[in-house]
Structures are given as structure tokens and as C-alpha cells.
Amino acid sequence: MIVFDQVQKSYQVKGQAIPALQPTSMTIETGEIFGIVGHSGAGKSTLVRLINLLEPPTSGRILIDDENITDYSPAELRAFRRKVGMIFQHFNLLSSKTVADNIAFPMKLAGIYSQQEIRDRVDELLKRVSLADQASKYPSQLSGGQKQRVGIARALACRPTILLCDEATSALDPQTTQSVLRLLADINKELGLTIVLITHEMDVVRRVCDRVAVMDAGEVVEMGKVSDVFLHPKHPTTRDFVFESEHIDHEDMQRDLAKAKGRILRLTFRGESTYTPLLGSVARESGVDFSILSGRIDHIKDTPYGQLTLSLVGGDLDLAMNALKAADVHVEVLR
Ligand SMILES: Nc1ncnc2c1ncn2[C@@H]1O[C@H](COP(=O)(O)OP(=O)(O)OP(=O)(O)O)[C@@H](O)[C@H]1O
């Protein structure tokens, strides 16, 4: 478990304090995939670099598994950092070393593993990231997705309990992003590893994260389960991220809604209710006529969800709304 207790960070530049993280308290649970989403300069990298103390906090405490890492001696800090793996947007591989040597590098650096242990671990990791046939290639001979797989294998070499991912898929095309995210999700499940994933794309959060913190100007402005934050965003920054990921133009949407007749509702279906044929029976029972203004069915991690924006005319609206709520549909009145 990672606990931030009133952690604040300012950088000193030419004698001036540049605030990067406002006092922040939060908990990242062991074994979860925790997303941190925010625009450029929001403070995401700062927050993640505090977790492995690449940056010391200006004030506040950081506890990992109940130990205050801000109190660690240099030797304790070195041992702790082996337990925290990191992957980067531009992979940061050593171009003069082969794939196998890149993966072996942190183990050699640690100086506590035998040659045999290193060889066995590298073989195991090469298989885990599906690169067993690329061991003697150099980074320049690999695709972006393959490079990131090497980055992941290298980050796992010393068997960390925490994996930090700094925009790990931002340089990859959508299909490669999907396969790297799937690999991270599998590793999380198999190894019970805690993953903290920084991104500026809500879609990445939707695909793999359990919980998310949304950052804006050095502040966590919204935090919660991805299903809650994604389907019912409260803060304007969160809403912008969700609209962007759904390719919704807010002004176009408002114009379309203005043209629609009657009441406008947004219905959110989660899990099994996504597939329940509900609207027809509610329309028949309540006498309300529906017209669909927009709709989407997708997944949040492994759970299906659907969102429909409807205009409703005539009939017994209260009866219709109650029937929808009774079927576990979240009903939001937009107008
Ligand atoms: N080493 C540093 N020295 C001075 N200021 C810094 C340093 N690192 C970051 N900052 C400042 O702190 C603020 C937060 O930066 P940070 O890199 O954490 O944001 P970010 O959300 O990760 O942005 P990006 O997505 O562009 O990396 C910014 O105003 C940035 O200019």
C-alpha cells in the first residue's frame, strides 16, 4: 500500500519555489492498477517520481507498506528502489546492449544475483513478454511495441512489488497500445503487482485501471473507482477528459440536445443490465415515446457498460424513470 500523507512538492529554480504538487493525501492499494490522468504540467510525473523518491517531497510523508520511505538511509533507499520498477514513454533502453543484456542490466547493477540467477530470470522474462526469439537483437532492430516489452521485462527483473508507468503507451499506435496494456493487466493479475500508470488519455485508464486520480495544476481534483469517475465525472477537467476519449464535441452535443423535444435523460447501464432488453417494455408500460440522441456500448476494464441519451415525449415519465431505476439503470435528467 502506498500512502501519501499531506505530500507537497515545490522545485527550487534560481532561488524561487515552483509549486508542482499541492498538499495531497491519498492511498494506492496493494495489487491495484491506479491511473493518474492529467494534462501536460499537471504534476503527474512529479507525483510518480515521489513514489520512488527520485524527487524528495518538500513536506509530508510517503509510506509504503507502513514504512516511511522519506526516513530511509541511502542503503535502505537503494534496496527499496529495487522493489520499484519503472517504464517510460521513450523506453530508455541502452542502444549498445542486446535485448537480453538490457533486461539483465538492473540485476547486474544490484550486485546481489549470481550469473546463473540472471540468465534464468532473463530467459523467464523473455518468454513472459513474448520476445524469446529476439534475445540477441539490439533495440534499434525492434518495433516500438517490442521495445516497450523489453522495458517491461527490464522493470520486472528484480521482482518489484510496484511498477510505475510514465506515459508508457503514448508513443505507440492504438493496436500496440492495446497489446501493451493487456500485458500490463496480465502481469498485474499474475504477480499481484501494484501498478501506477500515468497517462493523458482517459481511454488508457478505462481499459486497465481499477481506480484513477485526475490531476489539474498540481492538485488531485477527482479520485475514485474508474467506473464511477468515467461514467459520472464531476470536475470540469475530468469531464473534458471523458468527452475527449469518447470523441464528443461538447458544443455540438449541446446544439443537438437543444433541438430535441421533451425531457432528456442520460441512462447508464453497467454489467449485465447492459444487455437487458429494457427500453421496449418500459415504453409499452409507461406510454412514453423514446428517441435516441446518442449511444455507446463499451467496457471499463472487463465490465461492459452502455450509455444512452434519450429524449422522451408523452406518457407517464415518472413511471418510466422508476422502472428504469428498478432495473439498476442510472438515470440522469439532463433537461
Ligand atoms: N525538475 C524540475 N524543475 C523545475 N520545475 C519542474 C521540474 N519538473 C517539473 N517541474 C514543473 O512542475 C510542474 C509539474 O510538472 P510535471 O512534469 O510533474 O507534470 P506532468 O503532468 O507530468 O507533465 P507532462 O505530462 O508534460 O510530463 C510543471 O509546472 C513543471 O514545469
UniProtKB/TrEMBL annotation:
It comes from Marinobacter confluentis. GO terms for cellular component: plasma membrane. GO terms for biological process: amino acid transport. This is Cell division ATP-binding protein FtsE. It comes from the Bacteria. Part of the ABC transporter FtsEX involved in cellular division. Important for assembly or stability of the septal ring. It is a peripheral membrane protein. CDD domains: ABC_MetN_methionine_transporter (cd03258). InterPro entries: AAA+_ATPase (IPR003593), ABC_transporter-like_ATP-bd (IPR003439), ABC_transporter-like_CS (IPR017871), ACT-like_dom_sf (IPR045865), MetN_ABC (IPR041701), MetN_ABC_transporter-like (IPR050086), NIL_domain (IPR018449), P-loop_NTPase (IPR027417). SUPFAM superfamilies: ACT-like (SSF55021), P-loop containing nucleoside triphosphate hydrolases (SSF52540). The keyword Protease does not apply.
